[in-house]
Design a protein that fits this description.
homodimer; 225 residues; alpha/beta; Rossmann fold; Arc Repressor Mutant, subunit A; six-stranded parallel sheet; 12 helices; 53% helix; DNA-binding
Chain lengths: 225, 225
DNA sequence: GCCTGACTCCGTATTAATACCTAGTTAATT
DNA sequence: AATTAACTAGGTATTAATACGGAGTCAGGC
């Protein structure tokens, strides 16, 4: 991929015309480096249809959208074209939004207050197959402890939590995190405390922690209580 | 206090004119029920002076303010007029903001995205001597578990944490919450593991929890890691 | 029909945590 | 001088957690 003569196809899905024009303007200020072909969509449904019709290099996707929201539109696009690269945009840095979009398969998340340089940085990262996050987003996501759990890992873990852990294990984890002993949990769930012990072992192994403290931290950090 | 003929004196301290007008408009849409006298201030210093000059029923106080911030202004007003009822407003639901304002003596905390009904609910609650919190705020603060730890208790605990726990206990608590055993902690701090055990007992007693899980939850909820 | 994962349960053993008690030193306070 | 809180440490005992192994059932996918 040689940047200079590279034509980059962009789709902007956002219900605010002002935002679409803003992104377009910021992208086009870099026209010397790339040649952009930009399409727009003002609601989720329209975005999905555009994405099915054309192969875009990057799809900017707002979260709050009419008809289909950003999460639904992202899922729909990815189930039709799994290799689409979707960059979530939002004015809010609420963890829930971020997480929902990442779970839906977005490759990055940027805030609407970013400038032209950063928006190009995001586009270049996405094009070259990397993920991209606004600084504020990254800070929000990393904050685990001493860099042990990186953003990617935390996001990935939360996204795949229901794939990693069975529903029974989740149930046990919640009870552990709420100060119940194996025996109490066993009574509550009508199983032997040995069963609970096995779940506990599996939880520690799957989550890569050493003891109860680690399990509780995970439960709280991933907000599953 | 009979609502219908009650004159309610309001002070709005916020550096954004748009916010002040928004609150004013939302309040005045309830003029059939109350008669509002609204004053405005665009920075903390101005707010303090107004509050000293006049007795307001409710003072809306932003957090980020020029000259004196919301926390400082709140403290200043309360030291001059201890019975002032201050309602913190913020566009952010960061725990730190909330906690700082509550520590300064605010009677409530609302987000800027709330509507006219809720803003009236807040004002009525404050006037009648109650506290008021936006739903999202309440959720953030209460969320401990099954209502065992109420917001007031959580806020109070955080405020008085350094009074309740000694620095050594805090140190031990952090190490417990980061998956260290008593023996490891003892080695790290150059004391016997029995000493660590004693600290652990005292921590559980002081914090009213049953086991390691409870200690870890406290450490994370109060954000002391 | 076979295989796998989830869920269940047990045996055995060791280590860690919890409970309760006593008690010394030191520093600060009264 | 007496008291108190913090920090230290030990004794003793019980309970809980951790570790590792094996094993049966059951539902779903291949």
């Amino acid at each position: 991929m040689t940047p200079v003569d590279r034509r980059v196809k962009i789709l902007i899905v956002d219900d605010h015309n002002m935002v679409r024009q803003g992104i377009r303007y910021m992208l086009e200020s870099n026209e010397r480096k790339y040649k952009f072909q930009i399409e727009e969509a003002s609601d989720g449904q329209e975005g999905v249809e555009s994405a099915k019709r054309t192969d875009f290099d990057v799809i900017f996707m707002d979260y709050q959208l009419p008809i289909l929201n950003g999460m639904e539109a992202t899922s729909a696009i990815l189930s039709a074209k799994p290799y689409s690269r979707i960059l979530a945009i939002s004015s809010s840095d609420e963890f829930m939004y971020i997480d929902n979009m990442m779970r839906s398969g977005a490759k990055g998340f940027i805030l609407k207050n970013i400038g032209p340089e950063e928006i190009m940085g995001a586009v270049e990262a996405i094009i070259s197959g990397k993920n991209y996050y606004s600084n504020d987003i990254a800070v929000k996501l990393i904050s685990f402890e001493e860099g042990k759990v990186t953003m990617t890992r935390l996001v990935k873990l939360k996204r795949e939590l229901t794939e990693i852990l069975s529903s029974r294990e989740l149930e046990v984890l919640k009870l552990i995190a709420t100060e119940h002993t194996n025996e109490e949990i066993g009574n509550r769930l009508f199983v032997s405390k040995r069963t609970v012990d096995t779940h506990r072992q599996n939880l520690m192994r799957k989550l890569g922690v050493k003891n109860t403290a680690g399990l509780v931290k995970f439960a709280l950090d991933l907000d599953i209580l």
